[in-house]
Design goal:
Blueprint (H helix, E strand, L loop, with lengths): L3 E2 L5 E4 L3 E4 L7 E3 L4 H7 L8 H10 L4 H13 L3 E2 L5 H9 L3 H15 L5 H9 L3 E5 L5 H10 L4 E5 L23 H12 L11 H4 L4 E4 L5 H4 L3 H10 L3 E7 L2 E8 L7 H11 L3 H10 L11 H19 L9 E6 L6 E4 L26 E2 L4
Parallel strand pairs: 4-13, 6-7, 6-8, 8-9
Antiparallel strand pairs: 1-5, 2-3, 3-4, 9-10, 10-11, 11-12
Helix pairs in contact: 2-3, 4-6, 5-6, 7-8, 7-14
Length: 378
């Protein structure tokens, strides 16, 4: 191990006896009491020295070797120390991919802050390369979600959609104006390739493309299909145990979620049953909306709102791929123009639904504290 104070955490003295690592309450750590000798020792934790070398340098500074190792141990326990040589074989493969790690350094820094153990951020980033995500929809939201996931290092991002790109599909972060007139699936596939951080070495096996689907993101151009999803469409995913996340913009309202964990959280069938109980007129109205009768509705999806929803959707998807349960698990988040007030609605699994999630707790999130952490004295 070559201990390194995580470079993503800004360091500052809080008074004369305490050092704070990090700015924001969610990830800041305070350590103390600390003297100037300890502060000087911290400067040596830059990832270039092994523990034996650090002990020797501590001795040269007039400090006990055991004390130096104990400081490193406590810093690591507090989530402040990283190991730049960690990450395993998968991360070594990422290092060998031309240009990939340079593009992903901000993502690696973010993961190192979120995941405290030394080397865990590198391991999570490398694990994304084995992920396979399917995005259904290549409109303003779906294409941008696919681009963001590819740019974050997800190994295989597939986009499903039909027809040709229209001018109204073009949006920042999504399909470019040059793609108008092309087949949507082909244009989205090219966007994903352009955004992916580095190509795999020639001849290397594409394990992600052969892997089971990790997640389906449902972000169709007609967002009604995600806002009021049809159980017939999602039932095969539930039966196969494939997690899926709904997202989109409809009538100047953006939404992310719910993230459905088959057998653990409410599915599309549960949503339909719960909606019918809350509003007896809902099924008949939904049938009319889906019928397609009358004039084709104009999609009310402005660029900034689409970008906001796409970014949040990609962030929730990545949190799930990284092993967390984001707040969209079993919950839908909505935001409407012009005030942009976020609100959430949680739907419990319905006892009348065949998905079998009622009474299960696999998708139940536990609250986590966002307060800054204090460590034991050093």
């Amino acid at each position: 191990m070559r201990p390194m104070v995580k470079p993503a955490l800004r360091r500052a003295w809080r008074g004369r006896r305490t050092v704070q690592f990090g700015v924001t309450p969610a990830h800041a750590v305070r350590m103390g009491p600390m003297d100037t000798a300890t502060g000087g020792f911290l400067e040596l934790l830059d990832g270039s020295r092994t523990l034996p070398v650090l002990r020797a340098e501590a001795r040269a500074m007039g400090l006990p070797e055991e004390w130096a190792q104990e400081v490193v141990r406590r810093l690591a326990a507090a989530g402040v120390v990283d190991d730049p040589g960690a990450g395993g074989e998968a991360f070594d493969a990422l290092r060998r991919t031309p240009g990939a790690l340079e593009r992903l350094r901000p993502d690696l820094a973010s993961l190192s802050v979120v995941h405290q153990a030394p080397g865990e951020g590198a391991a999570r980033l490398a694990a994304r390369r084995a992920g396979r995500v399917r995005v259904r929809g290549a409109g303003r939201v779906g294409a941008a979600v696919a681009a963001a996931l590819a740019a974050a290092g997800v190994g295989c991002v597939e986009v499903q959609d039909g027809g040709s790109v229209e001018a109204s599909d073009v949006a920042p972060g999504g399909l470019p104006a040059s793609a108008v007139g092309e087949r949507r699936a082909a244009a989205a596939a090219r966007l994903v390739r352009v955004c992916a951080p580095g190509a795999a070495p020639r001849g290397a096996p594409d394990r992600a493309r052969d892997a089971p689907i990790s997640l389906i993101v449902v972000a169709p151009r007609d967002a009604l299909a995600a806002y009021r999803p049809e159980p017939a469409v999602t039932e095969p995913w539930v039966a196969a145990g494939v997690p899926h996340l709904f997202a989109g913009v409809i009538e100047a309202t953006g939404f992310v979620g719910p993230l459905v964990l088959p057998g653990g959280t409410a599915c599309a069938g549960c949503l339909l049953l719960a909606g019918a109980e809350a509003d007896p007129d809902a099924p008949a109205m939904l049938a009319q909306w889906r019928s397609g009768r009358g004039a084709r509705p104009v999609t009310a999806c402005d660029g900034p709102l689409a970008a906001l929803v796409a970014g949040l959707t990609a962030a929730h998807a990545l949190a799930f791929l990284d092993g967390e349960l984001p707040t969209s698990t079993g919950t839908r988040w909505e935001v409407s123009l012009p005030l942009l007030d976020w609100r959430s609605t949680t739907t419990a699994p319905h006892s009348g639904c065949r998905c079998g999630a009622a009474g299960r707790t696999e998708g139940v999130r536990t609250a986590t504290s966002g307060a800054g952490r204090d460590t034991m004295a050093v």
